[in-house]
Amino acid sequence: MIQPRVLKGFRDFLPDLEARKKSIVRTLEEVFTSFGYLPIDTPVLEYAEILLGKSGGETEKQVYRFTDHGGRDVALRFDLTVPFARFMAQHMAELYLPFRRYHIAKVFRGENTQRGRYREFMQCDFDIVGPDSTSADLEVLLIMQKALASLGMERFTIHLSHRGVLQDFLARLEVSEPVEVLRTVDKIRKIGREKVRETLAQLSDEERAGRILDFIAPGSEPEEALSRMEEGVGADNPHLARLKEIWAVIGELGLARFFTIDPSITRGLDYYTGVVFETFLSDLPDIGSVCSGGRYDNLVGLYSAQSMSGVGASIGLDRLMAAMQELGMLEAIPTMAPEVLVVCMEERFLAHYHGVAAALRARGVRTEVYPQARKLGQQFSYAEKKGIPFALIMGEDEIAAGAMALKDLAARTQRVVRGLEEVVHAVEHRREGVHPS
Amino acid sequence: MIQPRVLKGFRDFLPDLEARKKSIVRTLEEVFTSFGYLPIDTPVLEYAEILLGKSGGETEKQVYRFTDHGGRDVALRFDLTVPFARFMAQHMAELYLPFRRYHIAKVFRGENTQRGRYREFMQCDFDIVGPDSTSADLEVLLIMQKALASLGMERFTIHLSHRGVLQDFLARLEVSEPVEVLRTVDKIRKIGREKVRETLAQLSDEERAGRILDFIAPGSEPEEALSRMEEGVGADNPHLARLKEIWAVIGELGLARFFTIDPSITRGLDYYTGVVFETFLSDLPDIGSVCSGGRYDNLVGLYSAQSMSGVGASIGLDRLMAAMQELGMLEAIPTMAPEVLVVCMEERFLAHYHGVAAALRARGVRTEVYPQARKLGQQFSYAEKKGIPFALIMGEDEIAAGAMALKDLAARTQRVVRGLEEVVHAVEHRREGVHPS
Fold first, then answer.
1. If pLDDT is split at 50, 70 and 90, which confidence band does B179 have?
2. What is the pLDDT of residue A307?
3. 3 state DSSP class of A169
4. Which residues share a beta bridge with A103?
5. B343 and B376 in contact (C-beta within 8 Å)?
6. pLDDT of B280 over the 50 cut
7. Interface contact flag, B351 A86, Cβ < 8 Å
8. Three-class DSSP labels, A53-114
9. In what order do the strands lie in the sheet with A73-76?
């Protein structure tokens, strides 16, 4: 006998959780398509060369990589960004710009499974490729706001900055290792202000470290942060102008309460070149960013001589679901459980039971038939376990009389009904939160 | 530069096809949940021991198998049946019987890519585990019929048989290698009647080969096939009784035109022990079965001492989509393309454009904003490529006058509208297939 188990860092989704995951995905998809973003899909398995082309050592260590039957060096995708870059380079001729896509799919990383991290997890990316414009930057931020709001989130803040502003500031300071400085600043939430100061001092000196820390100081009002940035890079800085314009439009659209300007946001990856953003939940600050992204100006560089800019964001669906669970929001999402159980009194009435069930389904009621004659108590107990609110009972007497007994399993009440419309009515009442007695 | 390409047998899904795939999946999910089937998910990667426990050499050769960073012998799932068996054995204590689940996910087989087969493809499985009852067998057949009908399929036939009937017939014939005979019969559609006769004669003798071929003869009326089976195994055969009962209820439910009794259906796998079925499209007989399955009585035997019976079916989504494409049915499925393009006349009106777009979305209209000021012709041409039917034009004059110009891109007409309700109205008319001039 083989012990039934899954690999460490992998997990099964039982019906309730999987149904809620699907409902969340569907809500996100509705938001994306409402903004003109359309879905794509790419293979789980790709040439390792394609997936690892640009990555450093850390990524490579985490990637599931092997040789296939044909001797090809292949790997499981570890994010949806690299496959998207490959996709854009490969299909350029079939597509058009601006190109808006979303992609919700599993990715794989053999990383440390501590702290609730999984080795198989869902990413949910959306990007607009084409113009390097304020409108495109803004749009991604609007989608982030709308996506979280659509899931019932209210207390979140999207932290916004522009990598170019900080880079220009570092150039003015004549910092010798700006890329390392950006990576260090990116860790401020993880390692804290003092650790960052130490590292920055090593990378440059105490004085510069202090000035950088002043520049990125969090917690101030957006306008104050923008003035501080202006002092640092000058009023004519084009990156700062972009950031200010985005901030102004967010205000005009009445959405300022969901956003802030936070110069400490840099995103560690060299990939980003323009606006950058992360999203934190007010009630769960320690869970980290649930939606992050930014603008990049060299999407397809590895695979094509063409230059292509874009802006996008990624929602960590597993982290978001963990947050929703902790906030008690997950249970409010419906599970698509059936609404009526047609009880099996005698198996000779099989056709009758399945006929009634089909008629209820045709009226939009999710209905299942208990698949064999068992004690009523056993069938009711099954319905309760599965969260089915109503049982429909048709024995010899009811069928002869053209009637049914409708049992409300939560209220433990039962009444005789004569037509399916009454059943549909009871189900619809319950959907609206009105439990008829 | 790295050449952008995917592995042989793998493919990208561009927006139109992916949106249609999602729409098909959603339709199937609605059917499954309407019957009380709930979704589950399992990992793409599992212990090789778990996935390959019962499989023979053919499967093993096709499986993507490798050693992970932790030295574990792992593999990509090659179907959804084996992971389901592992899932049921592992989660028995958390679940209840009857357990109905569906699972729509990618599976991987490194097989020959000729004949339109992919190495990564989507399976769509649904099963009811628990009672070995007529009702459960019937239910799976009803779902198959409903699933295909919901996708707009009309001309299909679900071929139904019972493995136990053929097995009992072979026992009466005293055939020495019944398992091999079943496998041979299973190939009749691929290799033809004469090849089957040859192999059967080798496995037993000419006379028995003839009698088996008579028994499985296709093309007859269901009632005739049932009588022939009765002659072969006797009127009191319990397997035949099950098959007759199912056939009778299908008739009572008025669905006989979608089904037939076909004794040549055996399903090659030893796994099946009861009813078995395959589905053929009348207009594309050569494409093979688009939905197959059957009853099995030892689901979890590899992982548990418990015995568990079930019945289920699997839709090959890639094959089904290929069939729908060939039948011209794919293009009728909507792609979720945006309905209105807010044209960008001047970038200083950014907040206005995004505000109008947000208001349209709030009214249920999928709306995107062109992300930069470009020539009108270029923006219209983009809208046409993406299939966006309307463009909303707001320049300085329109904004000053509180108006908008609504352009119907297909009709090439343009008119001034004063409120968003007029835009919503035009979009809704178009959805209903009424193109206002």
1. confident
2. 87
3. helix
4. A125
5. yes
6. yes
7. no
8. CCCCHHHHHHCCEEECCCCCEEEECCCCHHHHHHHHHHHHHHCCCCEEEEEEEEEECCCCCC
9. A45-47, A73-76, A65-67
Token pair belonging to B214: 């008579």
Which of B25, B126, B354, B382 to mutate against chain A (most A CBs within 10 Å)? B354
Q: Do residues A242 and A137 make contact, with C-beta atoms less than 8 angstroms apart?
A: yes
User: If you average pLDDT over residues B82-103, what whole number do you get?
Assistant: 96
Under an 8 A CB cutoff, do A7 and B136 touch? no
Q: How many CB pairs under 8 A join A and B?
A: 305
For the entire predicted model, the pTM comes to: 0.95
Residue B435 has pLDDT above 60, yes or no: no
Residues written for chain B: 437
Say which range, A21-35, A247-261, B12-26, B56-70, has the weakest mean pLDDT. B56-70
Contact A34 B344 (CB under 8 A): no
Neighbour-count burial for A381-400, b at 16+ CB within 10 Å, e otherwise: ebbeebbbbbbbbbeeebbe
CA distance B423 to A277: 34
Pair B135, A371: CB distance under 8 Å: yes
Categorize the per-residue pLDDT at A437 as very low, low, confident or very high, splitting at 50, 70 and 90.
very low
In three-state secondary structure terms, B300 is coil
Q: Please give the Cα distance from B262 to B215 (Å, whole number).
A: 10
Residues of B in contact with A46 (CB under 8 A): 6-7, 10
Is A102:A39 a contact under the CB 8 Å cutoff? Answer: yes
Average pLDDT, chain A: 94
B307 within 8 A of B301, measured Cβ to Cβ: yes
Measure B2 CA to nearest chain A CA, in Å: 5
Torsion of the alpha carbons at A244, A250, A252 and A255, rounded to the nearest 10: -150
In this complex, the residue of A68, A120, A303 whose CB is nearest that of residue B64 is: A68
Which domains are seen in chain B, by residue range? 15-42+85-332 (3.30.930.10), 340-432 (3.40.50.800)
Q: Can you list the alpha helix ranges (DSSP code H) found in B313-419?
A: 317-326, 350-362, 376-386, 396-401
The CB density around residue B322, as the number of other CB atoms within 10 Å, is 17
Looking at beta carbons, which residues of chain A come within 8 Å of B44? 44, 76, 106, 108, 120
Q: Which residues contact B80 (CB under 8 A, 6 or more apart)?
A: B42, B103, B105, B107, B123, B125, B314
Question: Which long-range contacts does A353-357 make (Cβ < 8 Å, 24+ apart)?
Answer: A353/A394, A353/B135, A354/B135, A354/B138, A354/B139, A354/B142, A354/B249, A354/B253, A355/B252, A355/B253, A356/A392, A356/A394, A356/A404, A356/A420, A357/B35
Q: Coil, strand, or helix at residue A229? A: helix
ipTM over the 0.85 cut-off: yes
Min Cα–Cα distance to chain B from A204, Å: 35
C-alpha A105/C-alpha A124 separation (Å) is 7
Q: Please count the CA atoms within 13 angstroms of the CA of B18 that sit on its side-chain side.
A: 20
Q: Which of A25, A27, A33 to mutate to test the interface with B (most CBs of B within 10 A)?
A: A33
Query: pLDDT tens digits, residue range B380-420?
Result: 999 999 999 999 999 999 999 999 999 999 999 999 999 99
- Checking if the pLDDT of B59 tops 80, the result is no
Residues 6+ apart with CB under 8 A from B203: B175, B176, B177, B180, B181, B184, B209
C-beta of residue A255 within 8 angstroms of C-beta of residue A220:
no
CA B38 – CA A17 distance, rounded (Å): 10
Give me the percent of chain A exceeding a pLDDT of 90: 84
pLDDT at B330: 95
> A375: burial class by Cβ within 10 Å (0-12, 13-18, 19+)?
exposed
Q: Which of B24, B35, B46 should be substituted to probe chain A, the one whose Cβ sees the most A Cβ atoms within 10 Å?
A: B35
Q: Do B303 and A1 make contact, defined as CB atoms within 8 angstroms?
A: yes
Residue A350: per-residue pLDDT: 97
